[in-house]
Amino acid sequence: MNVLFFGDVVGEIGLEALEQHLPRLKKALGADFVIVNGENTCKGSGLTYKEYRRLLALGVDCVTLGNHYHGRDQIDDYIEEAEQLVRPLNLPTYFLGSGSLTFDLGGTSIQVVNLLGQAFMKEEVDSPFEALEDALDPEASVRIVDFHADSTSEKKMLLEAFKGRVSAVIGTHTHVQTADPCIIEGSGFLTDVGYCGMQDGIIGYRPDSILDALLYKKGNRFAIAEDGPAEIDCVLLRIDPLTGKCSSVEPMRFLDGKEFNHVTHHL
Question: Which of 25, 59, 125, 148 has the fewest CB atoms inside 10 Å of its own CB, making it the most exposed?
Fold first, then answer.
């Protein structure tokens, strides 16, 4: 089976780019299951119900979140009924929604787990290692982890700790696609899948707003472009539905709708 995983959607420009290209990519790549990280969809922080529904309308099977899971308070009103939305599992004080969901795809059980890292992150969370250990679904044949974290080492540590027991550990959060796809004992890995948003920005935000906030101390808001060329970053995972073993990890980048590069790691 083919699992297509898209990096963090940053703002309306990223969502519109997905609306334009995701259906075509899903068909062209033969994707059986689609995961999208949606934690930055609403103006760079959070996810409203309207945007969640727009993602599902594109054929997205599961939407994951991250440290901006509560960027919009509205999520409290709909997360309990959002059956395809996974928030970070290892939150010590937030109990609405679920950090792990298992989907049925034609008889194949697919578990999706969302975790937050501890290293370099502002949020105080429980150990992602202990949380994942407790959450592994013994009935799921395919297990995919969205590890939303800053530290590259922490992400690789999670792979090493759970190699052979999960189908893939895919990193999100840094908005920069990495060139280190690998497979260890049947578990696919990519440190970060990247993002979907403004092409010529800084991690999806307008460079002038980043400079004003961090260099010139003129404000504290990162602004998103309203239009212009967009970047779409994703990774295609080929997984045996019977064994849950990953045989191929293929990161892809599309700049203004055209494929930029394509790195494949096969078993």
Answer: 59
State how far the Cα of 242 lies from the Cα of 262, in Å rounded to an integer: 27
pLDDT, one tens digit per residue, over 161-182 is: 999 999 999 999 999 999 999 9
Candidate list 21, 68, 148, 173, residue with the active-site label: 68
Quick one: which of 5, 249, 2 has its CA closest to 148? Answer: 5
175 included as an active-site residue: no
pLDDT per position as a tens digit, 177-202:
999 999 999 999 999 999 999 999 99
Token output for 42? 């609403």
What 3-state class would DSSP assign to 18? helix
* Residue 184 domain boundaries: 2-266
Number of domains in the chain: 1
Q: Which two tokens stand for residue 252?
A: 């892809």
Q: Who contacts 151 (Cβ-Cβ below 8 Å, separation ≥6)?
A: 117, 119, 120
Rounded to the nearest 10 degrees, the angle between the axes of helix 128-135 and helix 152-162 is 30
